[in-house]
Amino acid sequence: MTLSKDFGFGEYEVMLRDAARKFFTDNSQPDQIHRLVADNPDLHRPIENKWVPEQWQEICELGWHSVCIPEECGGAGMPLVAAVAIAEEAGKAAFPSPLLTTYNSVAVLKACNTEAAKLTLEKITCGSAATLAMTNQKGSWETTDTDVSVINGKLSGTAYFVQDAQKADLLIVSAASSDGISLYAVDSNAEGINIIADGIIDLTRDQAHIVFDQVTATEIAGPGQGDKALTKAMPAILCITSADMVGAGEWLLQTTTEYATTRVQFERPIGFFQAVKHPLVNVMLEIDQAKSLTYAAACAYEEAPEQAEELSRMAKSRASDMAVFSANRAVQFHGGIGFTWECFVHLYFKRQMHNQVLYGDGKYQREKLAEHLIGADGNN
Fold it and tell me: Where does the chain hold its CATH 1.10.540.10 domain(s)?
């Protein structure tokens, strides 16, 4: 397998990344995010969905939400690495928005390759945010596991672990019937839908389980085709999630390194001591490994689809392990202040902990990778 130079990350992708970096720097500084989502440290506080919808509208005006939507549907038609670059910057800013869930939904809709899916992509191009409702109560990320059923075109049941559900205008729902798994698009405010917020540790996101009661929906992938579309889109979903972790890891590393150069103990900056400097180097190495794998997987998704699952699961495995390590070291090396609510580190710590299990943690990804490479029966 030979991938494009720099994983297809060309001039236009660089310009897009730099523009995104400036936008998040101007609109999503850690103190701003902390005031927005962490204003109440009460353990028994109500579950709230805190974000700035006006910033989402700005992103839509810039066209970043539709970078990977085909031109025929009104998008920019750029490769996945463009969305990965923006996702990395969003993770670095711990930005609360439905941007990443919309990217995931776009990947699924493109994999459906039906007229109904293309019409739904056009709605997203016009500014509608989307999210996936594909997971059962057990938290299984298998594409055939859903607690939603469809009878006569109407959805009933419950979808669990739905990301940024309260921000989404559109739901891409996986539903089972006797003929197999289908996919449906439905407005989040449609009659018969009840969005019930979940309490999660990540303050920069919301999560919910959604109850469907005889909901009329638009079929975007027929029976037996829905799970195939989800499987085809999964490498892109894993890449987007991994990029978010890479970005958050970069912020944690930079912030902790700066702290290690200013915090003095025993008359020396704590970064002078090997017990601090060596683990920080290890964090840097893990971030670089996760980032390289993520961009390689995103490139393979476009250029070598037969390698996309392998590389994307490697990326998510490495990124999940890195997320835990980078967050742990950041809290540890910030010492007593690192455990406090006032320290911005906890925003990224919690985002990393949420991401590392989203769509399967490192262990899960390695198990799926082994099945893919060796075969479930242990034979090639």
Answer: 5-129
